[in-house]
What does this fold into?
Amino acid sequence: EAQVTQNPRYLITVTGKKLTVTCSQNMNHEYMSWYRQDPGLGLRQIYYSMNVEVTDKGDVPEGYKVSRKEKRNFPLILESPSPNQTSLYFCASSFLGRGPTTDTQYFGPGTRLTVL
Amino acid sequence: DAKTTQPPSMDCAEGRAANLPCNHSTISGNEYVYWYRQIHSQGPQYIIHGLKNNETNEMASLIITEDRKSSTLILPHATLRDTAVYYCIAGEYSGGGADGLTFGKGTHLIIQP
It folds into this structure.
């Protein structure tokens, strides 16, 4: 089954404790992206990647890091989490350059992060 | 991306057609209209997109006005599982996948039994 998986689905942590949220897709997509969703603010893009070893900042990159060492994986790293990073996080992936019908985004199930 | 305007919420009776409007009066000629939906706290799900012509797939129909300043998403026979937030997005396809699409606040569609 074609899907985007995220782990963990729920995480409660404390300020300053480094954490990684994993994202994996099995559709051979070139493009991957991380969003955060907060009440009243909608979905905001954190980072995206056009292919292996190619990453770029989205709208709200501060406090986050990403890496794309393999095509299928795009982990989100919070080196020193703070309470304002408490949010619902979504990973997404899509093909690139095959036309707007094919390049639609597939989203993961979400990771609910609480930083105390 | 062109700005889109949607009503914050709508109700629809189960089994009836749900018509969700979207205004995108500043859309440019090469911007597509995309629709996604998000069922409570799940990841957004692609529904349909179009440029100029009306489009239909197994999930919905998209009607775009001739001047492209507005569109309507139609769910022909709404079910309770269609209760979700529906996002209308106007964005340019640049060969870069769907990068740059801006998800606004959407319309919360509530299907009533």
Observations:
- Chain A has a mean pLDDT of 93.
